[in-house]
Design goal:
Blueprint lengths: L6 H4 L3 H9 L6 E4 L7 E9 L3 E8 L1 H20 L1
Antiparallel strand pairs: 1-2, 2-3
GO cellular component, one term: plasma membrane
Protein name: histidine kinase
GO molecular function, one term: phosphoprotein phosphatase activity
Length: 81
């Protein structure tokens, strides 16, 4: 059913469309999941062959949660000192 569709029709996020169309894939893109806004996804695109694209998607939600915990801890420790 989704075969043959443009990827920008399947991943409907303005930043993804901009990222895909600029073709500057040196850095990955992080966007909220379209299904769960508390989930963060990291997308990395690599070009190969005859204008083909390979897209890797990772769930980086836990990394963001741990980073926030670290920031909160540092803020609390700094406040106590």
């Amino acid at each position: 059913q989704d075969g043959g569709q443009q990827v920008t029709n399947l991943v409907r996020h303005p930043r993804f469309k901009e990222y895909f169309e600029t073709e500057n894939y040196l850095e990955p893109l992080e966007i909220p999941s379209p299904i769960n806004d508390r989930m963060r996804l990291q997308l990395h695109i690599t070009r190969y062959g005859n204008n083909e694209h390979l897209m890797l998607v990772r769930d980086v939600t836990r990394i963001h949660q741990l980073e926030q915990m670290r920031k909160d801890f540092v803020a609390n420790v700094s406040h106590e000192l």
